[in-house]
Amino acid sequence: MEDRLAVISCIISNPESVAMVNEKLHLQSSMIIARLGVPCREYGVSVISIVMHGTQNQISSFAGDLGKVDGVKVKSIQVPVADHQPRTDL
């Protein structure tokens, strides 16, 4: 299966769900390249953006798993990656 690079964005509106989301992120840490978490207290939500590498099935399964947590909305975007070599021409 083709490798992909993905960005997953989560908005967490239930503060009690943050621990569960963090647990799920920890379990998939081998696929996670970067993570940014921002507590938006004035809006009553937390926002997490995750950059990850894996197969389409792995990424979709992970995003779906996050979306099953109470008070968590998830969107993701994926692009195929041809190889694992870092590009130096950017």
Give an overview in words.
The structure is a single chain. The chain has two helices and four strands; from the N terminus they run βαββαβ. By secondary structure, the chain is α+β, with helices and mostly antiparallel strands. The chain has a single domain, classed as Alpha-Beta Plaits (2-Layer Sandwich), CATH 3.30.70. A four-stranded antiparallel beta sheet has the order 2-3-1-4, covered by helices on one side. The protein starts with a strand and ends in a 10-residue tail after the last strand. 19% of the residues are buried. The mean pLDDT is 93. Pfam families: TM1266-like (PF21699). This is Transcription factor NikR nickel binding C-terminal domain-containing protein. InterPro entries: Acetolactate_synth/TF_NikR_C, ACT-like_dom_sf, FeFe-hyd_TM1266.
- Number of E-state strands: 4
Main pleated sheet: 4 strands, antiparallel
Which CATH architecture is right?
A: 2-Layer Sandwich
Q: Span from first to last CA?
A: 26 Å
Overall shape: elongated
**Secondary-structure class:** alpha+beta
| CATH fold-level assignment | Alpha-Beta Plaits
Order of helices and strands: EHEEHE
Radius of gyration: 14 Å
Strand content: 35-45%
The average pLDDT score comes to 93
CATH class: Alpha Beta
Give the tally of structural domains.
Answer: 1
Instruction: Please state how the strands of the largest beta sheet are arranged side by side.
Output: 2-3-1-4
What portion of residues is helical? Answer: 10-25%
